From TrEMBL:
Reaction equations catalysed: alpha-D-glucose 1-phosphate + ATP + H(+) = ADP-alpha-D-glucose + diphosphate
TM helices/strands, residue ranges: none
Pathway(s) of this molecule: Glycan biosynthesis; glycogen biosynthesis
Site (Could play a key role in the communication between the regulatory and the substrate sites): 85, 124
This protein's name: Glucose-1-phosphate adenylyltransferase
Keywords: ATP-binding, Carbohydrate metabolism, Glycogen biosynthesis, Glycogen metabolism, Nucleotide-binding, Nucleotidyltransferase, Transferase
Subunit details: Homotetramer.
Native source species: Ferrigenium kumadai
Pfam families found in the cross-reference section: Hexapep_GlmU, NTP_transferase
Listed EC numbers: 2.7.7.27
Lineage: Bacteria, Pseudomonadati, Pseudomonadota, Betaproteobacteria, Nitrosomonadales
Entry keyword annotation includes Cell membrane: no
Residues that hold alpha-D-glucose 1-phosphate according to the record: 125, 190, 205-206, 223
Family: Belongs to the bacterial/plant glucose-1-phosphate adenylyltransferase family.
Job description of the protein: Involved in the biosynthesis of ADP-glucose, a building block required for the elongation reactions to produce glycogen. Catalyzes the reaction between ATP and alpha-D-glucose 1-phosphate (G1P) to produce pyrophosphate and ADP-Glc.
Amino acid sequence: MNAELNYVQRKYHPAIGDTAPRFISRITKNTYAMVLAGGRGSRLHQLTDWRAKPAVPFGGKFRIIDFVLSNCVNSGIRRIGVATQYKSHSLIRHIQRGWSFLNGQFGESVDILPAQQRVDEEHWYQGTADAVYQNIDILREADPDFVLILAGDHIYKMDYGKLLASHVEKKADMTVACLEVPIADATAFGVMGVDEHARVVKFDEKPAKPASMPGKPDKSLASMGIYVFNTRFLFEQLIRDADDPNSSHDFGKDMIPYLVNKHRVFAQSFDHSCVGMGDDKIPYWRDVGTIDSYWAANMELTRVIPDLNMYDQEWPIWTHQEQLPPAKFVFDEDERRGTAIDSLISGGCIVSGSVVRRSVLFSNVRVNSYCNIEDSVILPNVEVGRHVTLKRVIVDKCCRIPEGLEVGIDPEKDRKRFHVSPNGITLITPEMLGHKVHSIR
């Protein structure tokens, strides 16, 4: 088994992080990662009117999809396919610009796989399993030993090499990555039951009454939507599922429940492969699928020690690097002082005589004088006019905030013009301000 795993242990710098081994091996090199990135993410409302959810900016300079792609590259998986569908132009352009550094001469690439009716001329991607099935010819040409299925719309850092090593060690047909979630939230997940050997014995997709974990009545064991398959086994099951007229062709709804009682399906806890767990030992994983959760995840990054370490040099988050000047803060007068406190400020930003607190400013944001910005997320290429107040606000790309606007003070007034979430987070888009924007978001 040791010869088969053949992993390389990379020691981390003691000043940076732990000394856990990284499984960059023949197994990871012989794995093809399929990232499912075609969803809109409708719970993000107008934030995904012009982009797919994986293309939504996050963390000051990244896009959501950068996290799963970085996990692949850092894990030693350099053959990646990204299946796209809904309003994918900005996503495709981002991948082309930011992920072209992989070397095709060594078989490395990020293949963009838009829905193009490869199997028949009647259907686009019908479900998660169908999205993989419609690219089965590409997988056959790649000829990997293993296929890793990933969602492209979550924020986390994970060593997929450890997941693959567990899959091989247990001689599994399929392995499902899982995490513990509060039972009240488990209705949004596939919920699993496992035996003492971590073999999956039950699987319910988004159950109305989720089962609790043994000894943990307030927790459920939830699928992360991350699956490892032996390639030949995956092909057999995709073809079988495609031929089933009663299937919705989805991994969670159809394939996994079918496989659990017939084949070797195992679960691996996220605890075993999470990278950079904090002192509380709770693995960092965020579904930023609502306005409130998206805002909260960005706000967490402004803490002195956030749960997500984006400064980890051993597990970097890769992205498209724009050539921009440093952020700039100007004026030092009592009523006109350019400052940012507990905030992330990206390149190309100018804060001119205004105060920014606990906020995330993406690239090329211009804040003019006498403004007060608090607890807000401002996406790229936004200009904020003078005497503006923004509190608990998300501002979409390319907005021009007019002089004197106050948002986050009077929710009832804000609802007449903007989208206000259940937790009182206000979303502002160019269209809400009456702007016609032609740039790609």
